[in-house]
Amino acid sequence: METSGNFSGKADVYAKYRPSYPKEYIDYLLSTNQLKEDRIVADIGSGTGIFSRQLLERGLNVIGVEPNDDMRTMAEQSLNQYSRFTSVKATAENTTLKGNSIDLITVAQAFHWFDKKAFKIECQRILKQKGNVALVWNSRDLTSPVIKENEEICQKTCSNFKGFSGGIEETPEVFSDFFKEGKYEFKKYSSEMLFDYEGFLGRNLSASYAPRKNDEEYERFVFLLSELFGKYSKNGKIALQNITRSYLGNV
């Protein structure tokens, strides 16, 4: 798993500005997987705990597995009121969790960083029989004019930018190979998120490819985003179209 350095120094902005997931999606996960209170979910690549929090709010036991020290510490601080939360410093490919102990594995916004084959073997080891893996991403709706222009800004100023894929550019073969017999359930949810200027800027700066404050392109990046906000915002808010995509199945 290669994430541990990509978000170092960005944990605070990531935790503050990354969107959470639709309530309908959490409802779907609980009902489809028959998750009652006290069931154990392993949230792999749990980052700052955005997705973990939504599961904890529903009374589940959540084990957050995250190798990045900055992000894991942020999750531990923000989720310390939840007695059902356990934080583990480990990778997706070697979670250190007990075999046959997990009711559901969730991976929010992180699967594209993993060694897929090694992660699949680890899932098979730690999941209880018939336990599923849920891979989910929030991503921008690329048909939206504001998001197209936002993408152009990133292309101009972010040397590591390869598109707003959020990992969604994974080919269908990747999911067919990962899930047992190539079978999985696909779900898609559309939503609109409103950001004020600070939130819009923070959402962009939380990306792994975004320049940091001491980088050469940082000021240009912020200036162009400010112009974009001015162009599309109404009453101090800008609307970003969001798509949540989920892939759920046995491995």
Describe this entry's structure for a reader:
There is one protein chain. With 251 residues, the chain is of the alpha/beta class. It is 35% helix and 23% strand. It has a seven-stranded mixed sheet. Helix 4 links the parallel strand 2 and strand 3 (85-88). Helix 1 crosses helix 8 (197-205) and helix 6 packs antiparallel against helix 9 (218-232).
Per-chain topology:
Layout: H1 11-17, H2 23-32, E1 40-44, H3 50-56, E2 61-65, H4 69-78, E3 85-88, E4 102-108, H5 116-126, E5 127-140, H6 145-157, H7 172-178, E6 185-195, H8 197-205, H9 218-232, E7 238-249
Parallel strand pairs: 1-2, 1-4, 2-3, 4-5
Antiparallel strand pairs: 5-7, 6-7
Helix pairs in contact: 1-4, 1-8, 6-9
Order of adjacent strands in the largest pleated sheet: 3-2-1-4-5-7-6
Helix content range of the residues, please?
25-40%
Largest sheet: 7 strands, mixed
Average pLDDT across residues?
Answer: 90
Distance between termini? Answer: 19 Å
Principal-axis shape:
globular
What's the helix count? Answer: 9
User: Measured on Cα atoms, how large is the radius of gyration?
Assistant: 18 Å
Strand content: 15-25%
SSE series: HHEHEHEEHEHHEHHE
Q: What class, by secondary structure content?
A: alpha/beta
